[in-house]
Design goal:
Layout (H helix, E strand, L loop, with lengths): L2 H41 L8 H4 L5 E11 L2 E10 L5 H12 L2 E2 L9 E8 L2 E7 L8
Antiparallel strand pairs: 1-2, 2-5, 3-4, 4-5
Length: 138
């Protein structure tokens, strides 16, 4: 065997090893993610509510309060939001409506979507988010 053919064989073995390692890491990641989804589904309750971080408020919004309310069929988060300095109430409302809409999609780590509703509240907004309600059919 010549030195050149040894290098080719070594490169093939290294490439195969890297490919197998990548496949193994991908398989482990998929199993862990499916395990997380399963635990999340098994542990889900009507009391689960979205956090401020999950709501992804625009930079023009300042969250002044956070509370959890419950009623028939589930619970929801209520976030008191006011405009940041230099932002009008109308600009805040437009940005919140544009960024949040009426439903936020889930993420890779938490696939549950969040239903969103916004109401006027004095000089700010009350933004509600929950995992259980569904938008009205068109």
């Amino acid at each position: 065997m010549t030195g050149n053919s040894t290098n080719v064989a070594t490169r093939r073995w290294v490439a195969m090893g890297v490919g197998l390692a990548a496949a193994a890491l991908l398989a482990i990641a998929v199993v862990l993610l499916l395990g997380r989804y399963t635990l999340q589904a098994l542990g889900a309750t009507e009391g689960d509510v979205p956090t401020e971080a999950q709501m992804s408020f625009p930079a023009t919004a300042v969250v002044t309060s956070t509370s959890k309310e419950c009623g028939s069929g589930g619970c929801w988060s209520v976030f008191g939001v006011r405009p940041a300095d230099g932002v009008t109430h109308e600009e805040l409302r437009a940005e919140v409506d544009a960024k949040l809409g009426d439903r936020l999609p889930g993420t890779l780590l938490d696939p549950r979507s969040i239903s969103v509703s916004v109401e006027e509240s004095g000089s700010g907004l009350d933004v509600r988010g929950d995992f259980w309600s569904r938008p009205a059919a068109p």
